[in-house]
Design a protein that fits this description.
This protein is α/β, with parallel strands linked by helices. It is 40% helix and 14% strand. The protein has helices spanning 34-48, 72-82, 95-102, 119-122, 126-133, 143-147, 152-161, 178-182, 193-207, 226-235, 245-251, 276-288, 308-319, 329-337, 352-360, 364-371; strands at 13-18, 52-56, 87-89, 109-112, 164-168, 189-191, 213-217, 238-241, 262-263, 268-269, 273-274, 291-295, 323-327, 346-347. Strand 7, helix 10 and strand 8 (238-241) form a beta-alpha-beta unit. Helix 1 (34-48) crosses helix 2, helix 10 (226-235) crosses helix 15 (352-360) and helix 12 runs parallel beside helix 13 (308-319). The chain is elongated. It binds 3-phosphoglyceric acid. Residues 19, 21, 61, 171-172, 175, 351-352 line the site of 3-phosphoglyceric acid.
Length: 373
Amino acid sequence: MKTLKDFDFQGKRVLLRTDFNVPLSKQGDILDDFRIKAAIPSIEYLAKNQAKIIIISHLGRPEKREEKFSLRPIANRLGELLNKKVRFFSDCIGDKVEKEIEKMESGDIVVLENLRFYKGEKENNEKFAKDLAKLTGDIYPAPFVSKVPSAPKLRKLADKRCGVYINDAFAVCHRSHASITGLPKFLPSGIGFSVEKEIETLKQLMFKPKKPLIAIIGGAKVKTKVKLINKLSETTDYVLIGGLIPKEIEWQNVKFKYPEKIILPVDWVDSGDIGEKTIKIFIEKIKKAKTIFWNGPLGKTEEKRFSKATREIAKAVVKGKAFSVVGGGETIEFLTRVGLIKKFSFVSTGGGAMLDYLVDEKLVGIEAICSGK
Ligand code: 3PG
């Protein structure tokens, strides 16, 4: 799979897929710009290497154009973070965008409007993907490539003529959308630094963790986490479970493949948080761990009185010497709020994508780049 360092970007137009799906307040303020920051190393590298950078992303789950999901404020924040001019175009495709892109110079950065304002994105519509790809200039299949698609010399020639697609949006790599699995069919493709780091870290966690390895799983919806817990149990020494999941296990009579590795709470605080005795048991395991994976809060952290366990466990994780990997929107939001997030060894930008990768060891978005023409 190609990474940024495998391309010559000089003067080329690059479609950079980022995940700028950031939490917003009711007033539309950006609550956490962590995902915008995660894309900066790739953007800076592309700018330094004289690419013309066309950034595409989604925000929220709009079914049609809705002002509150516009990427305009995100583009502004990106400009502030980069300390550079970042232009915003209020469309993704069409004559107007094409004309503006024609005028781009090397090192320029533009952000296009929310991809999900277009039905073709979620429907993985080929025409939409093609229209996006065409923003970079030539695309596959160029006539000379389609005749002999496998001839390496002709492929190389085509690669030189076409623009480039870079996926640096790990958090959406589990979605078969036009900007994720559609674009690699039409452009030479690779992954950005953020996706590269995510894959490297999660592989390390799955295949070469320093033992003991502990997983901490909280939150809710056990049905969506059974596969994950079973998969993690294959390699972890213990899986510590909190949040609503222990109750759901009981209510739904869920059985696990390796029950001996599962550690459930022994006491509770008004059903909203795990109790003191459980915190102690969990901390004992955490102290001995060399690698820790964490997804999901252990109590209802939206209420202060139910936040104690998650805070205490977080403190124990960062106090130890273990390599700690954390992911999931709610968990990250809480750890940011209590000022501990920076102390974790690796913070994944992915929620669902991270969990899917841990379970299936692959993601459609990554597969598309590997098998891209
Ligand atoms: C996320 O926040 O997990 C990603 O941006 C994907 O968003 P989605 O679940 O709306 O596809």
